[in-house]
# Entry
Amino acid sequence: MTIAIVGGGPGGLALARVLHVNGIDAVVYERDHSRQARGQGGMLDIHADTGQRALREAGLIDGFHAIARGEGQDMRLLEPDGTLLVQEDTPDDAPLARPEVDRADLRNLLLDSLPDHTVRWGHALDHVEDGVLHFADGSTATYDLLVGADGAASRVRPLLTDARPAHAGQHAVELCIPDADRTHPDLAAMVGRGNFWVLGNGKTLAAQRNGDGRVRVYAVFYNTPEDWFTTSGIPLDDPAATRAWLVEEFADWHPDFLALIAACDDTVQTRSISTLPVGLTWEPRPDVTLLGDAAHLMPPVGEGANMALLDGALLGLALAAHPDDIPTAIKDYEREMFDRTSTAARMSARIHEMLCAPDASRRMLTFFRRE
# Structure
């Protein structure tokens, strides 16, 4: 049996690892040419009951604890005028309920746990036709089971559903302050050890401490049209002008928050947020399934990577439990996955709706108090 996993993100690698632990081979086709080909982004909070459960099933929980940042669970929530609403500082002996981990460190943990031949780098899937994978470089491969772990723009998803991601009315500009404790100690102290959120007026200014000492800064705009990066006038081709434009957009916010933007270097990345319909399902096929964002793309509020990791682990366990009955394994996996991720997607959509509101900070304060 040939199991082809398209996509070497957390979910696809977790699936490959759990299969390996259970003596089942798989091939991961990844479009990146190497693990160092591009940056992996910021931090992920890995939840005890989902992402950490997956890593435990993969036999990697001790390795995860070695790279996890418990202090990354710290959180500060403020209003645009500088009013501090919530400050949560994590005690040194607190349980690792939602520790932060660098995306690249997590990916390396998973990659290092697999045999060298498992991941085929530089294989960008172009299309699937008659049971054959066609890659952008002209190569092909066959499969008995195809797993689409290839994210929002999945090339595998159309084999199962006509659903396509839709714009969620959210755009984000990501900036960076490298070595923040040395270069801007006052701003580093303001952000703290974990996550720093300022919410209000249809915008968010967020900052996140990374394990390498940098602070990632996110300027997020809600209720925006899909072509906002083109129509807003933000000069993305000029980093200094981009920072000046953002400072003007947040001009009526507390001066410390403007200083956070002004302190960033010339690193500028953009994100346009899309989502799949909440509760998306499809009729099972005996040879194809999906996991992670390919199956249930949600707003980026902390659930996506955790769901992907658990998808991969549980699909691996289902295949190990039914090695001679793949259709049953897929049905068992999808039945649980649909139910679990629909609940997570509804919660994510609810949080996204709160963030879009003019009084987002107060709504989130109420949410955190209930949590």
